[in-house]
Structure to design on (840 residues):
């Protein structure tokens, strides 16, 4: 019998009525001839309420206790979901992280799943019972409760689907799929019918916050077909799947923007070997991730022979970090500015990263050039550029981000249906 | 090092401020040279909130899911208590029922503890860590979460104290001890300094709702000294301990009243062998507990020789059940009334059971007679009587219950300090 995993997020279980609606959906899926496993998040607002209690008690709560506290949110919705399925005439049984042996490492508040006891799930669904799993949580080797980080229920769902060999993992959410751009910004944005894991990874990391990025990594690793769809309609959403030949015909799949980064510029640093390593080594030591890096051309004062540094050559180094990491990055820059000979430090939080993503880029040259031309045509200045095999990102002024998204979306012809 | 278990009930952890207060109390106990284990209830109102959610989903919730839901209340307070102890500079670690292997049977919503992994607790306290245990919950052989029933955290506390061989189990509550009578009814009521387990059992079952009755049974079985005291003062409360010679000198320790029962009367039933067994067997089959039983003298119509029933002898049978069981008791009575030949059924919910309790009764004759005289002197009619080795109970009209308590309390001289 086909085996379907259905994940309901916080807004989809935000009230008892919505829990009842989700229960009916799970039952309908079962009655259509499937075995069903349901993964639930905490009721919307509950995780924040619990974390606020902890932070009201102490400014820096112990991570182990925080996880024991936060895990209750999903425990409550799992029990209520099982009751709602029973109330609608079905069979259901809830399971917590420790009961399904969702084994994780001990990195409290951001644990990673290592193994799942699939037999408990597959044995329980056999007699027509819907298995309800508390998302977001696991248990470490010592029996401590762990959580997977924000949005972790997506990862729970995909990991359970992978462990039991589910035929599909449906992610029910409050939007009806993944779009070619944010519809609030770009009225011509279209729902994408099918997208590859690789493209989804780039879009997820760029601000299309429909799916937690780690869940896409797990889905890709184990080849779990993921269906992102609306809790509030029967319409099909977006399938996130392994790539096949059909993907290659489309050059650009979507456009995303992200205002979560800030730009840091070190002015007039010594252009000598090891300077860049010193800067980014110091950031790495503080566990600060860097996204875009640009080293401007060296300003050579000319004169004596020999390497540029020996002649006192200067250059500028620009990079971006997340805005949440910026205060810590400033501390690091203050500490190392002198040793790399920087004559100035500049910070800019009014920036946005705009990206175009598409598997087709691998075989179609000229996407970057076309992107730069489109932005130039709209009078939008590019402050920095970074590229990967399947995406090109440009840093622009924050107040031009929406313009840039619309320009690129229409310029790459995404408004008209393209991929079947 | 002495080992102290401290249990904080729902009102004692009802707000973050009170949790902080309880945390300071635990730390002060530790700094006074003890190892400390803290047991917490859910924040007051939380268990009711959770159960209401379940009952809003379905009228008769599945007991297994109900327990998974309700157990989150104590999980939240345990994590917050651990954080509060840490915030105050201490070391703390929370444990749930499944983490301490508080093994119970599988009677969801009213499970009984079978075993506790004491080594986990004793190992953890060794380095100065305060162990915080979520009360009320356990885990069965299959890893299902169970709860111990209302007031179950008292039982958790005493059971943990017994398992680890604690020197005392302190029960912090919103009253400052056990009284000779309800101070709201009887202004001359005194706090009892020491009371035996047996007396406490009788008082607990009679409505002095300071300690859950099952916790007293466990304390008695394992000889755990229990100290019932106020969360809001430093004063000593009431010690519940094993009996010693000093207890014998006091005839009556306390007076209690209980309006939780209703009287059932079968009028004119056949006075034949097996009739009583039929009535109470039918009640037992429905799991309805019966407290007082009175069979009135048979009314013999006279005439033929032989056993009374053969001559058509009739009698009345009266008993009491809890008011919550009364609707089900009525169904049973309707079913069996004809087969025991009852000519009428009467129910009275306006009754109260008033009891005097004291170990000294075992060696002092005449307590019952003195009780009847005192009630008669106050013009209070006795509807039924039951006795045990250490208590005498009389059923009276509900509107005379307070009068009866005051009369007996003063009549037995309880107003003046008696026991050291």
């Amino acid at each position: 019998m086909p085996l379907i995993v259905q994940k309901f997020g916080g807004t989809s279980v935000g009230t008892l009525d919505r829990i009842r609606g989700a229960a009916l959906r799970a039952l309908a899926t079962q009655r259509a001839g499937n075995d069903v496993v349901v993964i639930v998040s905490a009721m919307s607002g509950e995780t924040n309420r619990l974390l606020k209690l902890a932070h009201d008690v102490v400014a820096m709560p112990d991570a182990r206790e925080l996880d024991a506290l936060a895990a209750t949110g999903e425990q409550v919705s799992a029990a209520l979901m099982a009751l709602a399925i029973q109330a609608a005439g079905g069979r259901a049984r809830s399971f917590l992280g420790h009961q399904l042996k969702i084994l994780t490492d001990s990195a409290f508040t951001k644990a990673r799943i290592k193994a799942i006891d699939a037999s408990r799930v597959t044995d329980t669904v056999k007699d027509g019972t819907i298995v309800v799993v508390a998302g977001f949580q696991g248990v470490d080797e010592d029996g401590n409760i762990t959580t997977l980080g924000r949005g972790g229920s997506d990862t729970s769902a995909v990991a359970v689907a992978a462990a039991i060999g589910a035929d599909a993992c449906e992610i029910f959410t409050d939007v009806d799929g993944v779009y070619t751009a944010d519809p609030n910004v770009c009225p011509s944005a279209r729902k994408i019918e099918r997208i590859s894991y690789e493209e989804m990874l780039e879009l997820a990391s760029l601000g299309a916050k429909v799916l937690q990025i780690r869940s896409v990594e797990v889905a890709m690793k184990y080849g779990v077909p993921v269906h992102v769809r609306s809790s509030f309609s029967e319409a099909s959403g977006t399938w996130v799947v392994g790539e096949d030949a059909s993907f290659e015909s489309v050059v650009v799949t979507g456009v995303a923007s992200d205002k979560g980064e800030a730009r840091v510029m070190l002015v007039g640093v010594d252009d000598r070997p090891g300077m860049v390593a010193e800067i980014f080594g110091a950031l790495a030591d503080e566990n600060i991730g860097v996204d875009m890096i640009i080293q401007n051309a060296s300003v050579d004062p000319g004169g004596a022979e020999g390497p540029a540094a020996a002649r006192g050559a200067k250059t500028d180094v620009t990079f971006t970090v997340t805005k949440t990491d910026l205060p810590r990055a400033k501390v690091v820059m203050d500490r190392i500015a002198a040793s790399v000979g920087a004559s100035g430090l500049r910070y800019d939080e009014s920036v946005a990263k705009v990206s175009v993503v598409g598997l087709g880029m691998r075989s179609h040259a000229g996407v970057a050039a076309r992107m730069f031309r489109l932005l130039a045509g709209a009078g939008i200045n590019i402050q920095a550029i970074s590229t990967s095999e399947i995406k090109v990102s440009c840093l622009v002024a924050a107040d031009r981000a929406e313009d840039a998204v619309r320009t690129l979306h229409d310029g790459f012809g995404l408004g008209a249906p393209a991929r079947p």
Notes: The longest helix of chain B spans residues 63-87.
